[in-house]
Structure formats: C-alpha cells, structure tokens
Specification:
Keywords: Membrane, Transmembrane, Transmembrane helix. It contains 16 helices and no strands. By secondary structure, the protein is mainly α. The chain has 2 domains: about 55 residues; about 325 residues.
C-alpha cells in the first residue's frame, strides 16, 4: 500500500515487529498492509497501522474506502466480501423472507376482515395489550442504553436511546388513545394528542435505522445522498399510492387530517425498507426480518384505521383491527431482547451465494419503482376532483421526488468521475 509505505519510509522504515508492537495484530498481519499482492486488509488493521505510523487517518480512510468499495461491488458468487468471511448461504434468508411474508399476509387479511365488522367488545383488552408490550420493549431498550453507557459505548448508547425514544413516543400515543376510547368513550378518538406520539416515533426510528444501515454495509453500496433519495422516494410512492386508493375507493378526503393519517402507513412502509437494508447486505438477517415484519404489521393496522376514519357513516374502530399493532409491539419486544449492538467499525456487505442481484441494483430498482409509483399515482389521482390540500400535496411530492432523483443522479455522476479504478485505488492506499 503505497501511501502507508511512503509514510513508513519517512518515519525511518521501522520494522514490522516494531509497528505490530503498537497494535493488537501480529507482524505477519501488519505485513499484509505493505504487500501490494495481498488482499486489501480490513479497516481496523489499516487504522491501527496508520495510527502507529502517525499517518493522516482521515486521508487513509478515504483511500481505503475507494479501494474497498469497487472490490465489494464486483464480488463473484463464490467469494467473500468481508475479511475472512465465507459467503452467506441463501436458504436461511429465503426461509426468513417467506416466513415474514406469510406472517404479514395473515395480519393483513385478519385486519382487513376485522375492519369490516362492528364488534364492540375487547377494546380495552387490545389497547392495554399494546401498551404492555410497548412498555416492555421501551424498558428493555432503556436497560440496553444503561448498559452501553456503563461500558463507555457512545455509539450504542445513542442507538438504543433513539430506539427507546421511538417506542416510548408510540406507547405514549397509545396511552392517549386508550384513555380517549375507554375512559371518554370515543369510538374514534378526536384531537391530536395521540398523533404527537405516533408522528414522533418515525423521526426517532429513522435516525436509529440510519445509524444501523451505515454500520452494517450500506455505505459501501451507495453513499448517503443515494440512500436518502431512496428512502424519500419510497415514502413519496407509498404516500401517493395511499391517497390514490382513498380517491378510487370514494372515501371522504375533505378533511386536512387525512393527510396526517395517510402518513402513518407510508412512514411504516419506509421504515420497513430501512430495517431490511442490512439483510440485503448479508448482515443481521434475523433482526432485519423481525423489524420489517413488525413495521409492516403496524402499517396494516394504520391502513385499516385510515380507511375507517375516512369512510362515511362509520362508527368505531374494531378491536380486532388492532392485531397489527399487537404484532408490532410484541415482535418489537422480542427484537429488543435479541438485537446485537452496532459494530465499532463499518462492516462491508457480505456476499450471499447464488443471490442474483447486488445490493446496489436492489436499491436502485426500489428507488426507480417508488418514483414511478409516485408519478403514476399522482397522475391517476389528479384526474378526479380533489380538495386543494390533496392536490397541492400530490403535486409537491411528485416535484420533490423528481428533484431528489436528479440530485442523486448528479451526485452519482460527480462521485463516479472522481472515483479511481480498482488498480488505482489499491496502489493509492
């Protein structure tokens, strides 16, 4: 590695054993850093060598990122992306995805059937069940915050604190909902006290899932601008499609509150994609499947609530339509117990054997499909007479999605133009 080799010479050419004595690695491992024919060492090795030589660590990291990103992007199906890791077999991922799809499908069917009934019993039981599971998940996450802080782990202290804040906000909104339905006897609660908690949850959860995706491989696939564009386009696509379903279903969309209620399932769908990102990078596949299932279950009940609240002459929200929320909180509590802390350094994507598409292609396809759905749903919806707030919102979403795609494309062209080839990157480090 040319840069570190030059720094080594400028420091008087210390021996490999002298350098290794200042790291936790053996001299044979350190020798890989200075061997151009050896595979690119992992960042922790390079970082400690650079530190022992008093090299510019930020510059070294940029060079290492340039060298590692193309390498992981062109991995074949029989090679490993991580340092010393074997390719991940696809059977476990396929089974998890199948189980997740079946679980979400059953929840959607149950919720949609329940939303058409007029059952009035079990309201307090279903609401209390959500509060108990939500409080349990928040308590577990707070314990993990405390343990991370005791270890001096600032990264995971922040990560689990954001997750705890998200679950606590949602549970607080559910408590307000319980009080309105059980104590004040409102079939569909009025006011927006519970909405504050429900809307705060995605903000905290998005920050935590962004940290999670960055540590588990996504920076090696796409940079931050591309990833933010993908999430935003997915939200716009889900939001526009939901408004289109309300229009074609002849629901009452005259109230501006409909725009707020439509954001619930759209944000849950977007967060489920963010939770799934480490899985397509071959990381945390069980935790990703749990989180995605939980968020899609919440989206099912959110959609049920939206449809009933915008249906004329509808009274009440059936307790069985809250099955998605119960699944959301219960799965979340299990995930809070089994979730691993974030690694101290960014992990490269792990190759999945016989996986037909690279994570880069999956994210690009999801962004393009979401943008297409946004434009199509907006065009179909605007053919109908709509209230001004709905029209303005759809037009704004389409414009912002288009500008976001243009920004991501411009950034890609600029970034690719300044990215060296594999051989240039390896020789530069």
């Amino acid at each position: 590695m040319r840069y570190l080799a030059e720094v080594r010479q400028s420091r008087g050419a210390p021996s490999l054993r002298a350098i290794s004595a200042q790291t936790v690695y053996s001299h044979t491992t350190v020798a890989r850093v200075f061997n151009p024919a050896a595979p690119l060492p992992s960042w922790p090795i390079v970082e400690q060598v650079a530190r022992s030589l008093r090299a510019d660590e930020e510059y070294t990291r940029r060079l290492w990122d340039r060298a590692s990103t193309p390498i992981t992007a062109v991995q074949g199906p029989g090679t490993a992306a991580g340092d010393g890791e074997s390719p991940l077999p696809p059977v476990r991922i396929m089974l998890l995805l199948l189980g997740m799809a079946l679980c979400v499908g059953m929840i959607v069917v149950a919720v949609s059937q329940a939303a058409d009934t007029g059952e009035s019993h079990g309201v307090a039981v279903t609401d209390l069940t959500q509060i108990v599971f939500g409080s349990g998940a928040a308590g577990i996450l707070l314990v993990r915050v405390w343990r991370s802080r005791r270890r001096g782990d600032r990264l995971n202290t922040t990560y689990f604190a954001l997750l705890a804040a998200a679950v606590t906000a949602w549970t607080g909104g559910q408590i307000a909902w319980f009080v309105a339905r059980t104590i004040h006897h409102q079939t569909i609660p009025h006011g927006h006290i519970h909405d504050i908690g429900y809307l705060a949850m995605p903000a905290f959860a998005a920050a935590a899932l962004w940290m999670r995706a960055r540590r588990l491989g996504i920076p090696r696939v796409r940079n931050d601008i591309h990833n933010a564009a993908a999430y935003f386009c997915v939200f716009c696509g889900a939001y526009a499609a939901i408004l289109w379903l309300l229009v074609v279903g002849h629901h009452d969309i005259g109230s501006p509150a409909t725009l707020v209620f439509a954001a619930y399932p759209a944000t849950d769908i977007t967060l489920s994609l963010a939770a799934l990102v480490p899985l397509i990078c071959g990381r945390r596949i069980i935790g990703s499947a749990f989180l995605t299932t939980a968020l899609l279950a919440a989206a099912a009940s959110d959609m049920s609530y939206l449809l009933r609240s915008t249906t004329p002459q509808t009274h009440g929200f059936p307790p069985t339509a809250s099955l998605g929320y119960i699944a959301f909180t219960s799965i979340l509590m299990v995930w809070a117990l089994i979730a691993h802390p974030l690694p101290a350094t960014d992990q490269p994507p792990r190759v999945i054997q016989h996986w037909p598409a690279h994570p880069r292609h999956i994210i690009t396809a999801a962004t393009g499909i979401a943008a297409t759905i946004t434009t199509t749903a907006t065009a179909l919806t605007l053919h109908h007479p709509l209230p001004t707030p709905i029209t303005a919102t759809l037009t704004t979403l389409t414009t912002l999605a288009t500008l976001t795609l243009a920004l991501a494309y411009f950034n890609r062209e600029t970034h690719d133009a300044g990215t060296p080839t594999i051989m240039e990157a390896r020789s530069g480090v």
